Amino acid sequence: MESTRDAQHGDFASNLAMRLAKATRQNPRKLAEVLVRLLPPSPAVAKVDIAGAGFINFFLTTDAYHAEIAEVLGLGRRYGRCAAGAGRSVQVEFVSANPTGPLHVGTAGMPPSALRFANLLEAVGYRVEARVLHQRCGPPNGNSGGQHLAAVSGALRRTLRVSR
Which of 109, 115, 108 is nearest to 93 (CA)? Predict the structure, then answer.
């Protein structure tokens, strides 16, 4: 089931008949006709059409849209939430942008994308712990952050002629 690109094809369309045709060894259009006949009536659906090789197009009523808008307004920020995760714990880990490396879409985009994913998991009922794995703070020459800081500290002491 997917949203259609063209309103003439309805609000939603399904290619289920075409996907089942091979396994059932039936003509996809005839299979679509059977599937449509088996659909129970719904006050949200104005009509169902079959197009082409067996696409099933669904046209919703304006009342269905009005009811959904009312639900969105009534639930506010809770709209779309569910309990599918059943309170199970998940951990989303992501790396920070390298503070000494180049900043680009990949490094800058990871934290916000990971947090959006964590928010999505939380919205569907998971207990989420999001962790930032900080990259080492050091030059990109392979030195660890500690070695880098020791080298900087030593150079600073020599420059300022500070004894230990």
Answer: 115
Domain assignment of residue 136, yes or no: yes
The single-letter code of the amino acid at 98 is N
Q: Could you tell me which of 36, 31, 38 has the C-alpha nearest to residue 54?
A: 31
In whole angstroms, what is the distance from residue 132 CA to residue 142 CA?
21
Q: Structural domain of residue 13, as residue ranges?
A: 2-63
Question: Do 93 and 155 have their domain in common?
Answer: yes
Q: For residue range 117-160, what is the model confidence (pLDDT) as tens digits? A: 899 999 999 999 988 776 655 555 554 545 555 666 666 666 66
Residues in the chain: 164
List all residues 6 or more positions away from 63 whose beta carbon is below 8 Å from its beta carbon: 43, 44
